[in-house]
Fold this protein.
Amino acid sequence: MRSICSKTNLYFFLAIIPLIIFSACRQEPPPPIESVRAIKTITVNEIASGQVRKFSGVIEAADKSSVSFEVAGNVQEVLVKVGDKVSKGDVLAVLDKSTYELNVKAAEAALGRSQARLKNSKNDLERLERIAKMDPGAVSEARLDNAGANYDSAKQQVEYRLSQLNLAKRDLEKTVLRAPFDGHIAERLVEPFYEVARGQRLFDIYMEGAMEAAVSIPESEIHGIYLGLPADITFPIISNTVFDGIVTEISKVAGTANAFPVKVTIEREIEIVRPGMTAEVTIILGGEAAETSYLIPLMAVAAGDDNVRGYVFIFDQETSTVKKTPIQAESTGVRDNDVVVTGGVQAGDIIAVAGVSFLEDGQKVKLME
């Protein structure tokens, strides 16, 4: 009986195996995983127009100040270091006060002697005037005039000694160096026990907020620079970003190598940009912005049609997609492996430069690392 059951079970399993295989074959394959194409890109910033120039510059704070003592002396304390944030009125450094305290005491003593002399001369004048009133012939007019002159001289001496005392007190107050405004310590040029002169630069403080790029414009180009001229500013530490700037200061005197110092203010605050950083300033001389053209690699241009000479794919950082954008190019505007584009792109655009024939408008992509 056991043998018959075993054979029956065996026949049953053999019969259902084809059904299992057939059922497995009928299952639909899993949906394909959507792949996101990685693209190689460049940022448009190479300007081809003959009216445009690029200048390397250094970032400076638009509001800054060099701070120094108004009196000379030996530095007793230095209370801040480079990078410290300070508020208006904070103590930066202190001089040895002993000499200035002695000056105050000496001025007070001199003032006291002058006040005593004034009191005596006043008493003498009043006494002579009383005698002359009682007996007009008892006091000569010359003696009265002399007493009056002594009194006036004593008053002037008191005023002079009082001003000397005020100056001594002011100098004592000036032995404490305070921050002139809220900002950061950009440079410190003093240490404790240094002997410093009056007006010697000890600290540079810059105010948070507006920054500007300091550039030097050659004498051959300065005629095209004017106040209010727009500019584009880029930073090596900030890729794929162009910031708006405006010329706010032009020197009337040439500096090194006959170049004129020019300041270009950045029109918005950039948190990571600090004084001393390098920047590249692109200026369109004479304001010929409409003539601006850009150099684009030939491999970035997709074939056009009857109406459009070509297309580029501009990367949208917010959606991580590319937009197929028609461009305008000069008919003879090919330089080496670049094409001169006069419309369709602008500084700061991120465009694909490889495999553009495989891209589509609105396609999801990622930047190649």
Notes: The first strand starts at residue 37 and ends at 39. The chain is about 25% helix and 35% strand. The chain has four domains: 39-48+292-367, 52-62+209-287, 66-93+177-205, 98-173.
